[in-house]
Structure formats: structure tokens, C-alpha cells
């Protein structure tokens, strides 16, 4: 019997991973361990919360004693660790919380896994500690080609209209860590602890570093859901600097699929980079969002150009407002995920245009979810749902 703790399962990516595992593996027991910080929202998992192979446990990963007890009581065989403080802007204001959760929390899980599994006759046999990390640990890449060049690789997920790289270098698994923000420094530190537990104690660990995710259920402090909501309500769209920063975007369900594959087939002690082969400047992605939302809401205007052609115009382009750049804002992230492609056969499945269309549609169709999050009402969901369980 596989009993897996997924930490951070009521957050954005974690909820997709929990949903995938609960639905795909009815014979596994899936324990969603989450403290429910501001970023945790159990409404993200409404559709699976009554499944017999699913259990939610409200717990802080830093609470070593409780984690240890849970592992023993539930005879846990695997951990997929996503719980973290994840927002760079918050890390700049409050680095201590990031060190506590991302570093000490990861250490507490590692130590509990080590002690519990070592106490079993089979020890680490058949066990897995899978740590989910970010590409931000590698620092920033140079933007040697601000106009974009033909990228050296392509997949079905790459954008059809816009398929560019903004430099020759990419993040590969052997690159030196050079984190710049308190968030990425804390994640980098946690990655080092995970690898140290393998090297020192033989704990069967795996680390993956993924690029920016987008899709349903993302907390609307992050660019894509925040901007979709602002466009809908015709609120200003604050763009850092000139909007030139480049990120590599991956649809969240493709990340969840990669996690499933790597958890089952990845090699112990390996690192895999996960990315979308899909680089975008922030300003370009914001324009795509405006076009997609305006189209969905019937706001597009048809005008006649000087040459007599009919052209579409998007009134909400006016909402773009340039603001002072984020301190230490990394210029370019771009993942080379060919190792994962080569060794385990993973590729993103969804073309970017389709992923963005689905994402915009989801946020527009789920205004109630958005209102609950923006009003803070989602924090009462736990009491309503779980108080008497
Ligand atoms: N979002 C991205 O684009 C991205 C990209 C690469 C990697 N990651 C990594 O993936 C993981 C998940 O990211 P996300 O965007 O889904 O984050 P999120 O902020 O949406 O969710 C984080 C979850 O962790 C929980 N949590 C926080 N502190 C906790 C604690 N002390 N104990 C227990 N639970 C706690 C929160 O309640 C929340 O449910 C993180 O480790 C992040 O570093 C994210």
C-alpha cells in the first residue's frame, strides 16, 4: 500500500498534484498536509474532498513532532513536498518566514522521513522523498537577444505565433546555484539540505526545478490571475519596470504530470529541470491576457485603418501602468528540460495559446472562487468543512 504525504496540497500547484494522484491512483492513500496559510485554500479541492483515498491534515511542516507522529501512524511510504512560502515580493518584506518554512520546514520533513524509515525493517527500500523546487535557484540569465532568436528546441507546447529565446544560455541541471531573492535563497538552501540527506544518510531523494506555472487555482497575488481579474474589473495593471523581464511559462497540469512521472520513474539522487520551452517577456504576456479577456468579454472593437483594412483594437490596453521595478528583479529565466524529455519521455502537452485560453476562461467562469479569495472568505471554508470532522 502506497501512502503518500503531499505537502502544500491546498495551494496552487499542490492542489493539482493532489487531484491527479487521488483520481489516478485509487489504491494509494493520499494525505494532504497543509498549514493553510493565506495561500492555502481547501476550496481548490472541493471536487475530490470526499474520495475514500484522500485525507486532509492541517499541520505546519515545521512542527517536527507532529510530522513524525503522522508518518508513524499512517505508515507513510512517500513524500511529495510542495509546501512553501512562494511569493518573491513577500520574501523581500519578510525573509524570516521564508527561511522558517522553506528551510526549517523542509529539514523537519527530511528528519522525520529519515528517522521513521530507518526504524523499519526494510529501511529506505521502496521509499521516496521528492522535493519540488524552482528554477529561480539558478539566478538570472542574460538577455543577449532582446528581440528574440530562434530557440534551440521546440515542443508541442511552445507557442505557435511567438516562439523565441532571448539569449543563448539556458538553465541546465548542472548549473551553479546563484539565488538573488530571499525566496530563491531559501529554496536553494532547502534543495541543498535534500541532497545532503541523500549523500549523508542515503535517503532516497529527488529534486526538480520548474519554471513559472500558470493555470486555474493560482492565488491572485501572482501575475496571471491578478491581471485577468484586474482586466475584468478594468483596474490598472501594474507592470514592473518596462515589462522586459522574461519568464518561461508552463501549464500547471503539465507540471503535475511531470511530478507524477518523476515520482514513479525518476532516478534517486537525480535532479530534473521542468520547463515549458516557452519564453515570454512580461509585457507581451500581459498583452496576450488583455486580448484574450477582451475577446472573451466581447470588448474588442473593430476599426478601419488608414489603408482601409478592418483591425481589431483592445480597449483595455490602456490599463497597462508602469511602476518602479522590483528590487533585484531577475531579468531572464529559461529552462532546458531536455534531460527529462530524453530520460523519461516527458513533454508539456498543451500548446501555450490553448493553455492561456483555458486559464482565462477558468478565472472568468469561476468569479465566485476569485471573490472568495479576494475577500478572504476562503479562510472560513476550513471551519465550515472540517470543524466537526
Ligand atoms: N508557482 C510557480 O510558478 C512555481 C514554480 C516552480 C516551483 N514552485 C514551487 O512549487 C511549490 C508550490 O508552489 P505554489 O505556487 O503552488 O505555492 P502556493 O503559495 O500556492 O502554495 C503553498 C502551499 O503551502 C502551504 N504552506 C505554506 N507554509 C506551510 C507550512 N509551514 N506548513 C504546511 N503548509 C504550508 C500553504 O498553505 C499553501 O497551501 C513551492 O515549493 C514552490 O517553490 C512554484
Shape: globular
Largest β sheet strand count, sense and barrel closure: 7 strands, parallel
- Major sheet: arrangement of strands: 3-2-1-4-5-6-10
Outline the low-pLDDT stretches: none
Bound small molecules, by name, code or SMILES, are: nicotinamide-adenine-dinucleotide
Overall pLDDT metric: 94
Q: Regarding CATH, which class?
A: Alpha Beta
**First-last Cα distance:** 25 Å
Helix count from the secondary structure assignment? 12
User: What Rg do the Cα atoms give?
Assistant: 21 Å
- Write the element-wise H/E pattern from the N-terminal end onward: EHEEHEHHEHEEHEEHEEHEEEHHHH
Number of domains: 1
Q: How is the CATH topology named?
A: Rossmann fold
CATH architecture: 3-Layer(aba) Sandwich
Tally of extended strands?
14
Annotated CATH homologous superfamily? NAD(P)-binding Rossmann-like Domain
Helix/sheet category? alpha/beta
Q: Which bin fits the share of residues in helices?
A: 25-40%
Strand content: 15-25%
Amino acid at each position: 500500500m502506497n501512502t503518500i504525504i503531499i505537502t502544500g496540497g491546498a495551494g496552487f500547484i499542490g492542489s493539482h498534484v493532489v487531484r491527479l494522484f487521488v483520481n489516478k491512483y485509487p489504491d494509494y492513500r493520499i494525505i494532504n498536509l497543509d498549514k493553510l496559510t493565506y495561500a492555502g485554500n481547501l476550496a481548490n479541492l472541493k471536487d475530490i474532498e470526499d474520495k475514500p483515498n484522500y485525507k486532509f491534515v492541517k499541520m505546519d511542516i515545521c512542527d517536527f513532532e507532529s510530522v513524525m507522529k503522522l508518518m508513524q501512524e499512517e505508515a507513510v511510504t512517500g513524500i511529495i513536498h510542495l509546501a512553501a512560502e512562494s511569493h518573491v515580493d513577500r520574501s523581500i518584506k519578510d525573509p524570516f518566514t521564508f527561511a522558517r518554512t522553506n528551510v526549517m520546514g523542509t529539514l523537519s520533513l527530511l528528519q522525520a522521513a529519515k528517522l521513521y524509515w530507518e526504524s523499519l525493517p526494510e529501511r529506505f527500500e521502496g521509499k521516496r522523498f521528492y522535493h519540488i523546487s524552482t528554477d529561480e535557484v539558478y539566478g538570472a540569465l542574460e538577455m543577449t537577444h532582446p528581440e528574440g532568436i530562434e530557440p534551440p528546441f521546440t515542443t508541442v507546447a511552445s507557442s505557435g505565433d511567438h516562439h523565441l529565446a532571448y539569449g543563448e544560455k539556458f538553465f541546465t541541471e548542472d548549473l551553479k546555484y546563484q539565488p538573488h531573492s530571499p525566496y530563491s535563497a531559501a529554496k536553494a538552501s532547502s534543495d541543498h539540505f535534500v541532497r545532503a540527506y541523500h549523500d549523508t544518510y542515503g535517503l532516497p531523494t529527488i529534486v526538480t526545478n520548474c519554471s513559472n506555472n500558470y493555470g486555474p487555482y493560482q492565488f491572485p497575488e501572482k501575475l496571471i490571475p491578478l491581471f485577468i481579474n484586474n482586466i475584468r474589473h478594468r483596474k490598472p495593471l501594474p507592470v514592473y519596470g518596462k515589462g522586459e523581464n522574461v519568464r518561461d511559462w508552463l501549464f500547471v497540469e503539465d507540471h503535475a504530470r511531470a511530478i507524477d512521472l518523476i515520482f514513479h520513474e525518476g532516478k534517486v539522487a537525480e535532479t530534473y529541470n521542468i520547463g515549458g520551452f516557452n519564453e515570454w517577456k512580461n509585457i507581451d504576456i500581459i498583452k496576450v491576457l488583455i486580448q484574450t479577456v477582451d475577446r472573451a468579454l466581447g470588448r474588442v472593437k473593430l476599426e478601419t485603418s488608414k489603408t482601409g483594412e478592418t483591425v481589431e483594437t483592445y480597449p483595455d490596453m490602456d490599463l497597462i501602468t508602469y511602476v518602479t521595478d522590483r528590487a533585484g528583479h531577475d531579468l531572464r529565466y529559461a529552462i532546458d528540460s531536455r534531460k527529462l524529455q530524453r530520460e523519461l519521455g516527458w513533454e508539456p502537452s498543451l500548446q501555450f495559446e490553448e493553455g492561456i485560453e483555458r486559464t482565462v476562461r477558468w478565472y472568468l467562469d469561476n468569479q465566485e472562487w476569485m471573490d472568495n479569495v479576494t475577500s478572504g472568505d476562503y479562510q472560513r471554508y476550513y471551519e465550515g468543512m472540517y470543524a466537526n470532522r
